Amino acid sequence: MLEPNIYHLKYFKTAAELQSIAAAAKKLGISQPAISQAIRKLEEALDCDLLIHTRNRFKLTEEGKILLEKSTTLLEQVDNLRADLRGKKSEISGPLRIATSPEVAHYLFPSTLKELQKELPKVRPSFEFGSTQEILNLVKSGEAEFGLVIDDGRMTGLEKKLLRKGHFHCIRSSRETATDATRFLVTRESPGLFELEKIFKEQYKKNVEIAVEVESWEVIAHYASLGLGTGLVPDFVAENHLGVKVSKTLWASKIEYRIYLVHKGMHQLSKAAQNFIRILQQNF
Questions:
Q1: Residue 85 has what pLDDT?
Q2: Is residue 127 pLDDT above 90, yes or no?
Q3: Whole-model pTM?
């Protein structure tokens, strides 16, 4: 026996509500025989009469009235199911691995993450921290979808896009009045110690004194706040770290940084990564 299908129910419901096969055919854009055949198949499948025909119209039998009530609910449930499935299919979700430095994630990502959570709550970003070379290796190996790095000329084999540029600042403890300003807290990674030595020698004709060398701008800013030396950090770290003040040294601002987005190609990025990058570019 042929089982009734959704279209049979839809044709019957429309005809029953309009009390006219002709009107239903016009509304649905199909032929009258198609609707009549659908109703006959329903009657055969359900083993009952659904309509009582009159000269120009018809009326529903008691079974027809029950089916009209039930079919309305069934068709609404089908429509809701379709909407739910479309939503699930289009919903962007899953993990998103990003490689960068702790300072970039700490100071430059919060607003982007807030917007991402609002737009795409099912996306789960995770961060891999490392040096510039480590970040590049993570992206090249596919362990991270994309990375944010300070340009040091080693980004071969990847696509890159400039997101932000700025300058370094010298910072000192805001609580110290007699801090030795000639001993520096620096990173070796470029831009850093090499650029400092070059500019310092041009300015003062002597070698720079290094108090502490540590590969973390956040640690440098913390040490500077404790009076352990003059820190050399990017502007976004200097301007957002409590306990330090910026030294007005013109030569320090000559050390420029550029933050680049790096990846293996936009076509290889997931929808989650593409949306994160879109929001990131707007905020930068």
A1: 66
A2: yes
A3: 0.64
Q: Shortest CA distance to 255 belongs to which of 212, 222, 208?
A: 208
**What are the C-alpha distances in Å from 55 to residues 14, 16, 51, 52, 58?**
19, 16, 13, 10, 8
List, in sequence order, the alpha helices (H) in 124-192. 132-141
Tell me the C-alpha distance between 277 and 261, whole Å. 9
Q: Is pLDDT of 86 > 80?
A: no
Q: Which three-class secondary structure state does DSSP give residue 162?
A: strand
Domains and CATH numbers, the chain: 6-89 (1.10.10.10), 94-164+258-283 (3.40.190.10), 166-257 (3.40.190.10)
Q: Give Cβ neighbours of residue 156 (< 8 Å, ≥ 6 apart).
A: none
Express as a percent the part of the chain with pLDDT over 70: 91
Label residue 266 left, alpha or beta by phi (over 0 means left) and psi (-120 to 50 means alpha): alpha
Question: Three-class SS of residue 266?
Answer: helix
pLDDT digits (tens, 9 = 90+) for 21-38: 888 888 888 888 888 888
Q: What angle do CA 160, 163, 168 make, to 5 degrees?
A: 115
In the block, which residue shows the tokens 């700025």?
Answer: 166
